[in-house]
């Protein structure tokens, strides 16, 4: 799956947190894992990159991945904490 598609899927999962269930949380986790794998692959590519322009592009891609993953992880942890606390008892208010 391309990075753009992963970002799109992550965006959809982050928007729909109102009706998040265990399945939703699991999907979010899988997308975050795939993004982490892409980030590792980019780091490996960066080590072997030749030109300065190519290195700059790879670094920029890594930074974008980091920011998106950070946002996703924050939401994932919040949903997970809410899931553990609520354990399926409707919509709790904080």
Task: Give a written overview of the molecule.
Helix 2 runs antiparallel to helix 3 (52-86). This protein has 3 helices and no strands. The model is unreliable at 84-94 (pLDDT under 50). The protein is 80% helix and 0% strand. The chain is elongated. The protein is an all-alpha fold. It has a domain at 22-86.
Query: Could you tell me the mean pLDDT?
Result: 85
Terminal residue distance? 36 Å
Q: Structural class, from helix and strand content?
A: mainly alpha
**Shape, per Cα inertia axes:** elongated
- What are the segments in which pLDDT stays under 50 over at least 5 consecutive residues? 84-94
**Count of DSSP E strands?**
0
Estimated helix fraction: over 70%
Q: How would you spell out the order of helices and strands?
A: HHH
Described by strand count, sense and barrel closure, the largest sheet is: none
Helical segment tally?
Answer: 3
Report the β-strand fraction as a percent range.
Answer: under 5%
Radius of gyration, in angstroms, nearest whole number = 16 Å
Keywords, separated by commas or semicolons:
0% strand, mainly alpha, elongated, single chain, disordered C terminus, 94 residues
Please give a quick description of this structure.
By secondary structure, the protein is mainly α. The chain has helices spanning 3-15, 22-48, 52-86.
Layout of helices and strands:
Layout lengths: L2 H13 L6 H27 L3 H35 L8
């Amino acid at each position: 799956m391309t990075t753009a598609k992963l970002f799109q899927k992550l965006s959809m999962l982050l928007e729909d947190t109102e009706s998040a269930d265990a399945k939703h949380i699991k999907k979010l986790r899988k997308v975050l894992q795939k993004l982490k794998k892409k980030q590792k692959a980019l780091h490996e590519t960066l080590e072997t990159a030749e030109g300065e322009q190519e290195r700059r592009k790879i670094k920029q891609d890594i930074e974008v991945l980091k920011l998106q993953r950070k946002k996703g992880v924050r939401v994932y942890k919040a949903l997970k904490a809410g899931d553990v606390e609520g354990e399926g008892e409707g919509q709790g208010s904080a």
